[in-house]
Structure of Glyoxylate reductase/hydroxypyruvate reductase:
Amino acid sequence: ESKDVRHKIVLTRDLGPDVMGLLRDREENYLELVLWDKEEPCNRDWILKNAPGASALIVLITDKIDTEILDAAGPKLLVVSTMSVGYEHLPMKELAKRGIKVGYTPDVLTDAVADITIMLALMAGRNARETMNIVNEGKWPEYNWAPFLFCGRQLSTSASSRKRTAGFIGFGRIAQATLSRLIPFGFTDCIYTSSPSSKPTPTRDAQLAQTLGLRSVRRVNLGTLAEESDAVFVLAPGGEATLNLVDEQFLRKMKKTAVLVNTSRGTLVDSDALAKALREQWIWGAGLDVVKGEPGISADHPLVKEQRCAILPHIGSATYETRVEMGTLAVQNALAAIFEKPMPAAFDL
Ligand code: DGY
């Protein structure tokens, strides 16, 4: 680290004392920190005003970074580091073209998101939203225990069904961590879809099946995934290529007893089609941590009206443990790029 070079880092949110300490420690000698310190998404004009001369931008998924911002930053910009695993808010092609590095935060949030994915699968199958509302509204006294009252669909295998198939749209780190959590529930088979440009991996799939004690792990087409899954997990990156992958056609093919869980990006699911699928009972239920157009989802949104739809406000990675790790990694990525060290998590552009 050369002492005579001071690098400007523009940070679009205060990341808390643990993480900010990593930057403050170096501030005196090497860094000039420019911080948006409000508890609301960073204002675009503020970024444009402060970006000039920056070596690093450390950003969140709420910051839409585009060529105008890169131009404003100018030639000193070495890295854009996002505190997220998702990157659809970054202009990846443009960053690659300009030789600007990209840092992101894979791995550290995998467990937190996989945990909540299972929670949503259970909530969707077991009518959690509808039944909790009854209690919260003081209506429990109206409902005596009865043999089939509030019955939902079981996630785990049962005496009547020894076969359970998990279907994954996207089969990366979070999908595989979710799959391993489904093993104790007795899941027997796994099917998945991947981006058309990725190569088939039959050997990896066979090994994974063997390691997890599954009958099979198979890559299939979207139609087969819809037809054969007892639970569909949407866990692929957002962006144009995956827009509305779960549409009316897909939902009509799903089992009536199956649940749909989306813990990746709202853009992958056609909200109107899903609301219709729930209303007309083409599928059993849905668990969503993300919805297209979030956070602008009001009480009259078609999905919010559906009792079989459990919706959380994008909290998949929201544990203190994970968010500190994400912030730390985002800062480490930026510092490594600035000081010409290997970045712990560089996105391969
Ligand atoms: C991400 O990291 O992309 C998540 O959506 C935020 O938890």
